[in-house]
Write a structure and sequence with these properties.
Helix content: under 10%
Number of strands: 15
Oligomer: single chain
CATH architecture of the largest domain: Beta Barrel
Low-confidence stretches: 133-139
Radius of gyration: 17 Å
Number of domains: 2
């Protein structure tokens, strides 16, 4: 089906990539089972977002999908119920530019122009990392977030910015 552009793809590593989640430009999130015959591979289409999908990722066991759109709308879907079980707006107020979910921990991160929020899959916010920069006082800074990626085994988050800054964040205060 080519009725909208594909904006992101996620494979389920626990099943050898058999389950595939696709986010689209029309706001749909589509779930495919590659083990089925070609005409039957699309097993679900979620139409609850109203804008471009920034990220759509399968949860552990492929029974859940977390997705976020450019408007900052984040949704958690139960693939068996075919509907969202949780929906909330990120607190950024500037839309969503990047998003990633940790493959093993119950965390996801959302990036906007001037901040990154780290949240539990329940929607509870764990932390906010804000860009702070003044010419008269140097502090950590980053430009608009372009990409986010969690380490596959550790709770480390890498953030790439439009100003060529790469930052790595940890929950461990010793770093």
């Amino acid at each position: 089906d080519a009725d909208s552009c594909v904006t992101c793809i996620s494979l389920d590593p626990a099943r050898g990539g058999a389950m595939m989640c696709i986010g689209c430009g029309d706001g749909t999130v589509r779930l495919f089972d590659r083990r089925l015959k070609p005409p039957d591979t699309r097993v679900a289409t979620f139409r609850e977002h109203s804008s471009w999908i920034v990220s759509a990722q399968l949860g552990i066991g492929a029974n859940s999908i977390i997705s976020g759109s450019t408007t900052g709308d984040v949704r958690l879907f139960d693939t068996r119920a075919k509907t969202s079980t949780l929906a909330f707006q990120t607190s950024h107020g500037q839309g969503l530019r990047a998003m990633d979910a940790h493959p093993a921990a119950d965390l996801f991160a959302c990036g906007s122009v001037n901040q990154i929020s780290i949240n539990y899959w329940s929607g509870t916010q764990l932390n906010i990392i804000k860009s702070v920069y003044h010419e008269w006082f140097y502090s950590s800074k980053f430009g608009p977030v372009g990409c986010l990626s969690f380490h596959p085994h550790k709770v480390l988050l890498a953030a790439g910015s439009a100003d060529s800054t790469l930052s790595i964040y940890s929950l461990d205060n010793k770093r």
